Amino acid sequence: MRVETVPDRELVTIVEVLSPTNKAPGRERLRYVRKREVIVASGASLVEIDLLRRWEPMPLEVPPPASDYRVLVCRGWERPDALLYPFWVKQAIPKFALPLLPEDEVGPEVDLGSIINAMHHTARYAQVARYDEPPPEPAFPPEAQEWVSGRGSGTVVVLMIVPSSARYGAPAGLFLTLKRPGE
């Protein structure tokens, strides 16, 4: 997603949701890393959302802490500093401020968990998701697997599967902690 100024359409922020194509090892990952470097060097802001547990996290100057998922927010005017929001399967997706222009002290809050939750209910993923099957690789540690199997307390755990292909061998997917509607 591109955020641009009006009317001159200058690039302000790029929001990237990592896919198996740009996260899996190989040529496409390298291409994405170069694209990411160009965005950051341009002075635009970058929000990178990694909801795939499979494959190594995207490179950072300082290795990221261990986590299942992460959201990276690079404000163009604060380079090379960035905000990293790591989170585990048992945690809700953290809310973050969408960086706009430097004069906007705080951008609008993005509640990605609520957005995915609404998509889950509206698109009726619950009717097609295979909650009775184990999650995609890599396997969860035993305590997280036990929690996932029990669906947690006070939450809904959503599984979305990205279709498998010969290139990736097995489906990539995600388990996320989301609040039930009305909580």
Concise overview:
The protein is of the alpha+beta class and 183 residues long.
3D structure, described in words:
The chain has 183 residues and is α+β, with helices and mostly antiparallel strands. Helices cover 21% and strands 26% of the residues. It has helices at 20-23, 27-41, 112-122, 142-150; strands at residues 2-4, 11-17, 45-50, 69-74, 83-87, 96-97, 109-110, 155-162, 172-179. Strands 1-2-3-4-5 form a 5-stranded mixed sheet, covered by helices on one side. A two-stranded antiparallel ribbon has the order 6-7. Strand 4 and strand 5 (83-87) form a beta hairpin. It is globular, with a radius of gyration of 17 Å. The chain starts with a strand and ends with a strand. Residues 152-183 have low confidence and may be disordered.
Identify the notable features of this structure and list them briefly.
183 residues; alpha+beta; 2 domains; two-stranded antiparallel sheet; 21% helix; globular
